Amino acid sequence: MTPATLLLLLPVAFAQPPIPAGLWVNPAEGLIVRIAPCGAGFCGYAAGTKKQNPPANFCGTKLFLDFIWNEKKHPWEGSLQPPEMKTPLNATATTDGKNNLTVRASIAFLSKTLTLQSFTGDQANLCALEK
User: Fold this and answer.
1) Is 48 part of a structural domain of the chain?
2) Cα distances (angstroms) measured from residue 96 to each of 10, 35, 111, 114, 129
3) Is residue 9 part of a domain?
4) What is the pLDDT of residue 35?
C-alpha cells in the first residue's frame, strides 16, 4: 500500500460547524430564540413570543443550555429547558447549512422536535435582552 492509500483509510474528522448564532423562530409556536456563544458551544435565550400571556420573566430565559459539538455523533448536544418544566430535557441540535435549525429533546419515552428558521422579521417587538 502506498502512503496515499493509507491516508484514505484513516477515519474522516468532521470539523465543528459554526455556532448558529443569531435569531431563530419556531413558526408553529411563535417562539423567537437568540442563540449566542456560551462556553465551548452555544446557549439560546427567549427573545420573543406570539403568546398572549408568556410566563413571568420569560424574556431572556435560557432555553437551550450548554450545547457543545459531539465529534463522534456530529450533532450539537445539550439541554432544552422549557419554562413550564423544572427538569431540563436532553437535546440535540442540527442545522441544514441553510436557514433551518432542528432541536430534538427527549425525556424517558417522550420526545419533541422544534424546527426553527432564521428570523428575518421585525425586531421592534422583541424582548429587551440582557447580554
Assistant:
1) yes
2) 26, 16, 20, 14, 27
3) no
4) 95
